[in-house]
Design brief:
The complex is a heterotrimer of chains A (290), B (304) and C (456). Chain A has 290 residues and is mainly α. Chain A is 75% helix and 1% strand. Chain C folds into 2 domains: 209 residues, D-Maltodextrin-Binding Protein, domain 2 (3-Layer(aba) Sandwich); 188 residues, D-Maltodextrin-Binding Protein, domain 2 (3-Layer(aba) Sandwich), CATH 3.40.190.10. Chain C has 19 helices and 13 strands. The chains are: A mainly alpha (290), B mainly alpha (304), C alpha+beta (456).
């Protein structure tokens, strides 16, 4: 009895260790695949340039001492600070527009049993399928009519063309998971349809809305063509455009600063992503199942 | 109830409320996607060029021109290989990774955090990082493989030229897409798997099913919708994404990596033949059709 | 093509091929001159004082111009400062935006669609004059004025600036793409200065086994487009007839150049050339591996800094001759143009004049990279080139300068052949073993199709 009691946790523990070892072993290739390029970018970002071009030398370590020069260059010799601020501002406004339009739309499509709702919904999703290379020329006209050419506000107007369809779909799925009963109870309590939406449905829709915001944010960061076509002034560019157009001069790649510039926005976004990952997961689950 | 008061009925008020809620989104996308798209359709049937505002209607001439171009077929084939190949790889890697991440283990949060970085880096910039990793002389990949004695030294015939050998070049650009996309596939699948109630799996276990049977009969049907939608959206993104190929190879060498978006861009924008460029990019739609059908199906299944 | 201005640690290993980037916002004129190290201070001040009086009506206006990021980054620093100084003097508020040259066409397509954008624009490599001329203002007055002042325009400038005999763009400069070779390596196989493409092939054949192959891009990049055309034109190929309307590629000369390229690849190159971009051959030369390359002198400048030992043995020749002694160098033109919707046409015209009047200083600042289009500007010694023992050979480059579409002008059809990379693809196919007749059939067919579209 006593012996068994003492032995059990031990075997449990070794079983746990074995299980962990197996999981880590399984994860290792994935981690290498996903992280090595990032690690490599990080190394490049703090390498001296002369250390990059040593023929035949180990590329992932330092022969010359690491340096912050590339970061310094990024902040003092380019408009990187402006690019970050622009990216933040663009993402904020794009998310705001997206939420303000796709929350009501998603709700209406999911809950209000409207005639033609299905077709309208499909119509909205279909617009996500139209690629940017088809749209940017006609949109240039729109941007110029609004007098937004060469201002980051032009991107605030344009990016919702892909975030709204995506997030409407996402939120529509999400709203379907909210039980009808809560809403009906609220309406019985004297709230109108709008009251029920605001007071009851929205508060339980946090994960869905957060997911939509995260998507708006990351989708906005993946654009290149629109920003290239509409913004040519250095201090108006978002980060991806600024980094890709101003750190390649002629045919010279400023590798270190390019990598630094990418990591400085990519890594914080990854952290934020992770903070909300659980919410995010319940967000997409809610949207897709049901 | 009289006709004049119909709009006061609860149903009417619900409709009014509903369409009011829908209006902003519908107006936004119809004005900024619908109208420009209609304009592009018109372009594709005209002889418009970048500098010529007066375009003539030419019917289906531009579509015919695309079909007469041998490179067009290469581009269609590459687009399909690229999208389907990348989709399969992302699916396989994503599923495996999702099952691994489903297990509770120490450091799960850290691992998850690291895995999403490829997805959060701006694509235009991470592609440039890959360009440097695929460099024909200073490739870090080749350096490592060469040290492990898997390939020869620089200058020897078995030194891979990632972006230069026809099959390998297409694989390399596809690989960058996979690298960027598989963590996301894993997260979407993880979401699907988390949503399968453990009781259902336990019940199935009691029934004495094997893992594969449980996977096929219980898990797959439960996560199918999320799988469909995830892959449909991912396919749309992969198909229309220009930046990976444009920045790595611009379709070369000899159309080895030419895809419809690069062909459309080089014809329509860089060469200025807007009409023909628009026609080429509209050929993306037949390729998108499977993705659309999947979407529609899933949507219909989800109706009330 | 890359290059660096500032000196750095040097040594025998490869070092920093990156330019000393100088922020135009923080560096004043004096700071720049120190950086560029070009002894032009006094000359430039004189030209500034000497500059023609700008018309008063442009005072108080603003001028926005769009340019590319020059391969010689210090030139952009010089240029931005030059534009600023001009603005201060004339009372025009000037802003210069730079974007990578490959992205210019997308931006112009958007500006044209919008009917708004930069007041003064710039085409490089892809000369879009033929596409946009209906929406560009007639600059014949500026062109005539400059032609009169500087001894007339080179014949090739018409291809870059005119459509149907009218000047819709003012040529600024062209980039020449000479041969850069390693004298020491050539000497090690008993060869002197190469005179012909056969010499280059022989050298590569003997040097490749010793670890010093050569390389020209077989890929979808700019350099592939010029380099193979240079070879073709030296072999006597004519892309079109002089009117530019009918293609003339289908002949024995083209077949001969394809055959030659195949041999050059088999004997003298490694497969890495299929993946190269415009910068790869610079690194290839600077790493000490390459025995010769065919590239702009920015590669020469970068090697000076990154590998002084290799640089000491690197020499430059304008071009080598084809079998019949023909020599053509395919340059990359740079031209100014003004939209009809430009908000400040007078200031834009004034600026074009002003930069042309200061060509010497500009050429000096570009380290001899910017080759002029005006005949008198070839008076020796030319800025920078005249003072450099190795580069002084380039002072007659105007005699062998051709652009794509040669001998016809750069029409929109020729543009499309260029941007869809048909010529590099033909060479790639043959180098990989495709039959020459099949390749001709495919390539000529594609090109015919494109020309037919543009006629239609």
């Amino acid at each position: 009895m006593i012996a068994a009691g003492a032995g059990h946790p031990r075997s449990q523990r070794s079983k746990e260790i074995r299980r962990h070892a197996l999981i880590y072993l399984g994860l290792a290739p994935f981690l290498v695949l996903a992280v090595f390029p990032v690690f490599w970018m990080a190394i490049t970002a703090i390498k001296q340039d002369s250390d990059l071009y040593l023929v035949g030398a180990a590329p992932f370590w330092f022969r010359l001492p690491p340096t912050w020069k590339n970061f310094d260059f990024l902040f003092n010799n380019t408009f990187y600070k402006d690019w970050i601020i622009n990216t933040m501002a663009i993402s904020f406004w794009v998310s705001a527009i997206t939420i303000l339009t796709s929350v009501p739309a998603g709700y209406a499509l999911a809950r209000l049993r409207l005639p033609f709702a299905e077709n309208l919904g499909i119509g909205i999703f279909m617009t996500y399928l139209v690629p940017a290379i088809i749209l940017f020329i006609p949109l240039a006209r729109v941007v110029s009519t609004l007098d937004l050419q060469d201002s980051w506000w032009s991107l605030v107007v344009v990016y919702p063309t892909f975030t709204i369809p995506f997030c409407t779909w996402l939120l529509m799925g999400f709203f379907k998971t909210v039980p009808f009963e809560i809403e009906e109870a609220a309406m019985v309590d004297g709230c109108g349809q709008l009251g029920a939406l605001c007071r009851v449905v929205l508060p339980v829709s946090g994960p869905g809305i957060i997911t939509a915001i995260i998507f708006s944010f990351t989708l906005s960061m993946q654009d290149f063509l629109y920003s290239l076509a509409f913004v040519s002034i250095s201090d108006q560019k978002p980060v991806p455009l600024g980094v890709a157009t101003e750190l390649i001069r002629g045919d010279i790649y400023f590798w270190g600063s390019l990598m630094a510039g990418a990591l400085l926005v990519g890594v914080p976004v990854a952290i934020v992503y992770n903070l909300f990952l659980d919410k995010f997961i319940s967000g997409i689950t809610g949207a897709a199942i049901k | 109830m009289g006709v004049q008061t119909w709009w006061r009925t609860p149903t009417a008020r619900r409709y009014l409320f509903g369409y009011t809620l829908l209006a902003p989104a519908v107006l936004y996308v119809s004005l900024l996607v619908g109208v420009p798209f209609a304009f592009s359709l018109y372009l594709s049937m005209s002889d418009a060029s970048v500098g010529n505002p007066v375009a003539r209607f030419v019917g289906l001439e531009n579509f015919k021109a695309a079909l007469e171009n041998a490179t067009f077929y290469t581009a269609v084939r590459n687009t399909l290989v690229f999208t389907v190949g990348a989709g399969i790889l992302k699916g396989l890697l994503g599923t495996t990774l999702a099952f691994l991440l489903l297990q509770p283990f120490k450091g799960r949060k850290v691992v998850r955090a690291l895995l999403v970085i490829p997805f959060t880096l701006p694509i235009a910039v991470s592609v440039l990082g890959w360009k440097w990793m695929f460099d024909s002389q200073f490739s870090v990949i080749n350096w490592a493989l060469s040290r492990l004695q898997l390939i020869g030294a620089y200058g020897s015939p078995d030194w891979p030229v990632w972006l230069g050998q026809p099959g390998l070049a297409l694989f390399s650009v596809m690989f960058v897409n996979v690298w960027r996309g598989f963590p996301f596939s894993a997260i979407v699948l993880l979401a699907g798997l988390t949503s399968v109630p453990p009781e259902i799996i336990d019940a199935a276990k009691v029934d004495g099913t094997t893992f594969m049977q449980r996977f096929r009969l219980v898990i797959v049907p439960m996560i199918a919708p999320i799988l469909f939608i995830g892959s449909a959206f991912d396919t749309v993104f992969t198909l229309s994404d220009l930046s990976i190929v444009y920045l790595l190879t611009n379709g070369g060498p000899d159309a080895a990596t030419e895809i419809l978006p690069t062909l459309a861009y080089n014809t329509g924008i860089r060469a200025g033949a807007l009409g023909r460029g628009a026609a080429i990019s509209l050929f993306l739609f037949p390729l998108l059709l499977p993705a659309m059908i999947l979407l529609l199906r899933t949507l219909r299944r989800r109706q009330y | 093509m890359s290059f660096q201005v500032s000196d750095n640690e040097g040594g025998t290993r490869m070092t920093d091929p990156r330019p000393a980037y100088v922020d135009p916002r923080t560096v004043g004129r004096r700071g720049f001159l120190k950086v560029a190290g070009a002894g032009v201070a006094s000359a430039s001040l004189l030209t500034m004082l000497d500059a023609r009086q700008a018309p008063a009506q442009i005072k108080g206006t603003s001028l926005r111009m769009l340019k590319w990021s020059h391969y010689v980054p210090a030139y952009d620093v010089w240029f931005d400062d030059f534009a600023k100084k001009w603005g201060e003097k004339t009372g025009v508020k000037v802003r210069v935006d730079h974007i990578p040259h490959l992205e210019l066409p997308a931006r112009y397509a958007a500006e044209f669609a919008a009917g708004a954008g930069h007041d003064l624009i710039y085409f490089v490599g892809q000369i879009l004059t033929g596409q946009y001329y209906r929406n560009l203002i007639d600059l014949s007055d500026v062109a005539d004025n400059l032609g009169k002042k500087y001894g007339g325009w080179l014949e090739s400038s018409k291809s870059a600036g005119q459509v149907g005999g009218t000047w819709f763009a003012i040529p600024d400069f062209f980039i020449s793409i000479p041969v850069l070779y390693r004298k020491d390596l050539f000497a090690s196989v008993g060869m002197g200065e190469p005179k012909t493409w056969d010499d280059l092939r022989n050298a590569a054949r003997q040097l490749k086994p010793k670890g010093h192959p050569t390389g020209m891009q077989f890929s979808h990049c700019n350099d592939a487009n010029h380099n193979w055309r240079a070879l073709m034109y030296c072999f006597g190929v004519k892309e079109t007839d002089p009117s530019g309307q009918n293609i003339a590629l289908d002949g024995k000369e083209m077949r001969e150049s394809l055959r030659f390229a195949k041999a050059l690849y088999d004997e003298g190159m490694t497969p890495e050339v299929f993946s190269w971009d415009d910068a790869s051959d610079n690194r290839f030369l600077a790493s000490g591996v390459g025995s010769w390359i065919h590239d702009a002198i920015s590669a020469f400048h970068s090697t000076r800094i990154t590998n002084p030992k290799v640089f000491a043995d690197t020499f430059c020749i304008p071009e080598v001759a084809g079998p019949a002694g023909l020599k053509w160098n395919v340059g990359e033109p740079n031209v100014w143009a003004i939209w009809k919707f430009s908000k400040n046409i007078p200031a834009a015209k004034e600026f074009i004049q002003h930069i042309a009047d200061n060509q010497k200083e500009a050429m000096e600042a570009s380290l001899g990279y910017n080759m002029p289009f005006l005949k008198e500007q070839y008076k020796k010694p030319m800025p920078y080139l005249g003072k450099d023992a190795k580069l002084s050979t380039l002072q007659d480059q105007e005699k062998i300068n051709a652009f794509f579409g040669h001998p016809g002008p750069m029409t929109p059809a020729a543009q499309e052949v260029l941007t869809t990379f048909i010529i590099p693809d033909m060479f790639t196919r043959v180098a990989r073993g495709a039959d020459i007749e099949d390749t001709m059939k495919w390539g000529v067919g594609e090109i015919r199709r494109i020309y037919a579209k543009h006629k239609g």
